[in-house]
Amino acid sequence: MNSVSEESRKCVEKHMEELKGGYKGVCPVCGKTIRICKSIRIEMGANTGSGICPGCKKLLHMTFNEERKEMNLERFKDYQKRHGKECEANAKTDGKGSGI
Ligand SMILES: [Zn+2]
């Protein structure tokens, strides 16, 4: 009955591969260093994503830092707050017709 252990070994190998391909990020809530796999969205150039911290289970927003090859993590609530402000600012510049 090798099949079960064989399967779990493959599973571990796959997981290790994923870890190798992942990027480091530090949770701003609990300070845990987590490895984040490059998501499809990031591959497509979005450079942002979100996920749950395995340490504190808080929802985090992540931005890929291309210079450092790391993930910048922030609380999703903080991101939402900031993003909301950006939207307001965009709406204001739209009114002025900046043309960007
Ligand atoms: Zn955390």
Topology:
Layout: H1 3-21, E1 23-26, E2 33-36, H2 40-43, E3 48-52, E4 59-65, E5 70-75, H3 76-96
What do these coordinates show?
- The protein is of the alpha+beta class.
- The chain has one domain (about 5-95).
- It is built from 3 helices and 5 strands, in the order H-E-E-H-E-E-E-H.
- A hairpin with a 6-residue loop joins strand 1 and strand 2.
- The longest helix has 21 residues, at about 75-95.
- The radius of gyration is 19 Å and the shape is elongated.
- It starts with a helix and ends with a helix.
- About 10% of the residues are buried.
- The model has no long low-confidence stretch (mean pLDDT about 80).
- The site of zinc ion has 8 residues, from loops.
Distance between the ends? 64 Å
Principal-axes geometry comes out as elongated
Instruction: Say how many strands there are.
Output: 5
Output the helix-strand order: HEEHEEEH
Instruction: Give the low-pLDDT segments.
Output: none
Main beta sheet = 5 strands, mixed
- Counted by DSSP, the helix tally is 3
Task: Walk across the major sheet and give the strand order.
Answer: 2-1-5-4-3
Radius of gyration: 19 Å
Average pLDDT level? 78
Q: How would you classify the quaternary structure? A: single chain
Structural class: alpha+beta
Taken as a percent bin, the fraction of beta residues is 25-35%
- The percent of residues in helical segments reads 40-55%
Bound molecules: zinc ion
Number of domain units:
1
